[in-house]
Amino acid sequence: MAIRINGADIAVPDDARVSLLDLLREQLHLSGTKVGCNQGACGACTVLIDGERVLSCLTLAAQADGRSVTTIEGLASAGALHPLQDAFIAHDGLQCGYCTPGQICAADAMLREIAAGMPSYVTADLASPAPLTREEVRERMSGNLCRCGAHNGIVDAILHVAAERAA
């Protein structure tokens, strides 16, 4: 039994009650994933499991057995920042930075959801791909809170990366 975390196989904890968040932060010392509310309401602990966003505070580590977990530390490759990380910096999508890792992981998954044609609450036409508007991004990112108010920069960063991928 193992969980692949950022490319490395990690044994599933013996204690079935260990949350994925606690495994990442307390046992593996991957401090990028943040403890926010510890109730699934803020999104600061968002990581990717098999490319889908999950709240690690509400996910037991045992639920990730046999799956691939990517944290903010695992998004960058070959020493280069992930395009979303670069865009968040360029568009001032952060202030204190506490929510940023969760925001970036959520945005990465969100862009894949849009590419796959998954609708959101504000998607007007379910028969065709949703245009990536500010409203669409805000709706899709609504589970990730920024207490500093950097939401405009976050949306700008996501739209920038989406436009680069579309080009």
Structural class computed from helices and strand pairing: alpha+beta
Q: Per DSSP, what share of the residues sits in E-state strands of 2 or more residues?
A: 5-15%
Number of domains: 2
Number of strands: 5
Question: If strands are numbered along the chain, what order do they take across the biggest sheet?
Answer: 2-1-5-3-4
In angstroms, what separates the terminal alpha carbons? Answer: 41 Å
- Rg is 16 Å
Largest sheet: 5 strands, mixed
Indicate the CATH topology of the largest domain. DNA polymerase, domain 1
User: Helix-strand pattern, N to C?
Assistant: EEHEEEHHHHH
In percent, how helical is the residue content? 25-40%
What would your notes on this structure say?
This protein has 167 residues and is an alpha+beta fold. The protein folds into 2 domains: 2-75, Ubiquitin-like (UB roll), CATH 3.10.20.30; 83-166, Orthogonal Bundle (DNA polymerase, domain 1), CATH 1.10.150. It is built from 6 helices and 5 strands. A 5-stranded mixed sheet has the order 2-1-5-3-4. Helix 3 packs across helix 6 (151-166). The mean pLDDT is 94.
